[in-house]
């Protein structure tokens, strides 16, 4: 069974190695001692293959949000693009700012900018590279950067953001005078909690505290691309704030099941990136194949054919939340602090639901619940330190546009069954064991 094999390999990867390496090279032993710190917390990353990839499980963990990859839609669109350009090159050969700029990449950049209502787009190899370029090139001496330290929308919401911004204005003369800027970095959709950034409210606060207009927003739309906004164009487009946001980063490796990323901004932003960002200036230009894959993904969004999948995500998220919320045992488990779904508390208050549904558990229980669901055929992964803060472990349920009601009902039922088992263990109703059956099987 693929799930059992994956879990067995994962647990083997958590076993300490340094104690058995007394006679090994110092170089290797020192590295293994550092890795053992991860292993001790069950936080060692291992190259496992999820069961859904061999059709032995249901995908609730991948970032193929619209299922463009698993259904073959992106591959078909990509192959169509290749047939239109049969004489393409596999290589780039040089950095773009020297000899490797080419017409095709410029054309696709214009198309991406037009789709998002931006003045320009600059394609980079990844979202990670894009963020590095933005924060290397754009801040000027004397500017202040405000970012969400906990990667959670609530830390920049309401009074917290107002207080931070007021403190900066009070303490920094050039910002107060309007000769330097405050750069505010946020995400449109927060990947660990599924929160949507209150962008409109933050911009309004910025205008109030800094009437000289020297607060600029940089928004990472990685987890919103393809899911949020008209035809999946993102949160900024959904709010009609294209002219109010200085920089946007859209990645293609999630909702578009592709690769690469695009930085949106005006001509000045683009010029700064192509001159000051080391990851742009000194990196080999993106290849034709990468650009063609990006174009294929955007063509699918532009066609409007994926709006049904976007709507289905909304429907399925509500169905899951309503299913666990209606289960009395799950509610008891939530009251006991065993497992809970934060979205149960405020789902009706949200204007828009995204594909990320965190399932919070008591520390270490996240692994037991993940084992239970994996062995039941539902591919979902525990998220623990260092990805999230210590004590903030959870499972991250990723709902996809092609998931079905039956699959949602199944994982909700399995979650509630595990909750019943843990309630019985903690209340003493099941005196036979203090460890969940799935954990016994894996360990």
Overview of the structural elements:
By secondary structure, the protein is of the alpha/beta class. It has two domains: 8-15 and 46-66 and 308-442, Alpha-Beta Complex (Aspartate Aminotransferase, domain 1), CATH 3.90.1150; 73-302, Aspartate Aminotransferase, domain 2. 45% of the residues lie in helices and 11% in strands. The chain has helices spanning 2-12, 26-40, 73-84, 103-116, 127-137, 158-171, 173-177, 199-209, 235-239, 267-276, 278-281, 288-302, 307-325, 328-335, 343-346, 365-375, 405-427, 437-442; strands at residues 58-59, 120-124, 144-147, 182-187, 215-220, 247-251, 261-265, 339-340, 356-361, 378-379, 382-383, 394-398. The strands form three sheets. The chain has a six-stranded mixed beta sheet, sandwiched between helices. Strands 8-9-12-11 form a four-stranded antiparallel beta sheet. A two-stranded parallel sheet has the order 1-10. Helix 9 links the parallel strand 5 (215-220) and strand 6. Helix 3 (73-84) crosses helix 12 (288-302) and helix 6 (158-171) packs parallel to helix 8 (199-209). The model is unreliable at 150-156 (pLDDT under 50).
What's the short version?
With 443 residues, the protein is an alpha/beta fold. The chain has two domains: 8-15 and 46-66 and 308-442, Alpha-Beta Complex (Aspartate Aminotransferase, domain 1); 73-302, Type I PLP-dependent aspartate aminotransferase-like (Major domain) (Aspartate Aminotransferase, domain 2), CATH 3.40.640. It has 18 helices and twelve strands.
């Amino acid at each position: 069974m693929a799930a059992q094999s994956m879990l067995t390999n994962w647990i083997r990867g958590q076993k300490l190695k340094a104690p058995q390496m007394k006679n090994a090279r110092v170089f290797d032993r020192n590295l293994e001692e550092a890795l053992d710190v991860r292993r001790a917390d069950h936080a060692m990353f291992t190259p496992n293959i999820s069961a859904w990839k061999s059709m032995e499980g249901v995908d609730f963990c991948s970032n193929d949000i619209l299922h463009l990859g698993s259904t073959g839609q992106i591959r078909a669109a990509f192959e169509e693009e290749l047939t239109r350009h049969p004489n393409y090159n596999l290589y780039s050969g040089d950095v773009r700012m020297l000899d490797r700029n080419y017409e095709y990449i410029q054309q696709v950049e214009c198309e991406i900018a037009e789709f998002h209502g931006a003045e320009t787009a600059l394609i980079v190899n990844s979202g990670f590279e894009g963020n590095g370029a933005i924060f290397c090139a754009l801040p000027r001496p004397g500017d202040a950067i405000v970012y969400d330290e906990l990667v959670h929308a609530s830390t920049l919401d309401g009074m917290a953001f107002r207080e931070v911004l007021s403190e900066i204005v009070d303490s920094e003369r050039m910002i107060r005078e309007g000769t330097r800027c405050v750069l505010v970095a946020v995400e449109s959709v927060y990947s660990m909690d599924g929160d949507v950034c209150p962008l409109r409210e933050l911009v309004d606060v910025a205008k109030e505290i800094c009437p000289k207009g020297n607060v600029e927003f940089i928004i990472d739309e990685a987890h919103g691309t393809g899911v949020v906004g008209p035809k999946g164009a993102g949160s900024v487009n959904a709010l009609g704030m294209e002219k109010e946001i200085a920089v946007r980063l859209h990645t293609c490796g999630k909702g578009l099941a592709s690769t690469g990323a695009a930085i949106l901004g005006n001509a000045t932003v683009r010029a700064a990136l192509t001159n000051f960002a080391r990851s742009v200036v000194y990196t080999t230009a993106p290849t034709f194949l990468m650009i063609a894959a990006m174009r294929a993904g955007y063509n699918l969004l532009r066609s409007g054919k994926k709006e049904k999948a976007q709507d289905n995500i909304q429907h399925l998220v509500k169905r899951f939340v309503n299913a666990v919320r209606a289960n009395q045992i799950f509610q008891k488990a939530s009251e006991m602090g065993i497992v809970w779904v934060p979205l149960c508390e405020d789902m009706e208050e949200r204007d828009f639901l995204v594909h990320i549904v965190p399932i919070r558990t008591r520390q270490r229980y996240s692994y037991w619940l993940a084992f239970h669901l994996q062995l039941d055929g539902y591919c979902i992964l525990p998220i623990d330190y260092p990805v999230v803060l210590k004590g903030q472990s959870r499972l991250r349920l990723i709902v996809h546009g092609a998931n079905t009601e039956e699959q949602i009902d199944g994982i909700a039922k399995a979650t509630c069954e595990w909750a019943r088992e843990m309630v019985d263990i903690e209340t003493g109703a099941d005196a036979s064991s203090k460890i969940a059956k799935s954990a016994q099987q894996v360990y």
